[in-house]
């Protein structure tokens, strides 16, 4: 089951790991809007497109972002 708090925490972990802040440049590079991040903070489920953008930007799996695995590695 999707847990917004896990997703938000995982996004923060990946962001901190890369030394990024949520700012306009980072969001633009990740193809995200401030509203999309705010929606996750409010507990709304992000679209698969937004999850794909975040996973690609952070080079991690969607499964990791949504808490289905503790391994951020992307299996190709």
Automatic annotation (TrEMBL):
Coiled coil: none annotated. PROSITE patterns: HTH_CROC1. Residues 30-65 form the HTH cro/C1-type domain. It comes from the Bacteria. The lineage of its organism: Bacteria, Bacillati, Bacillota, Clostridia, Eubacteriales. CDD domains: HTH_XRE. Pfam families: HTH_3. One of its GO terms (molecular function) is DNA binding. This is Helix-turn-helix transcriptional regulator. It comes from Congzhengia minquanensis. Signal peptide: none annotated.
């Amino acid at each position: 089951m999707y847990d917004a708090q896990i997703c938000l925490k995982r996004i923060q972990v990946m962001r901190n790991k890369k030394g990024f802040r949520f700012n306009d440049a980072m969001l633009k590079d990740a193809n995200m809007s401030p509203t999309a991040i705010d929606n996750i903070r409010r507990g709304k489920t992000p679209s698969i497109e937004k999850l794909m953008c975040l996973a690609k930007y952070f080079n991690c799996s969607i499964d990791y972002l949504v808490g289905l695995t503790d391994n951020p590695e992307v299996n190709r």
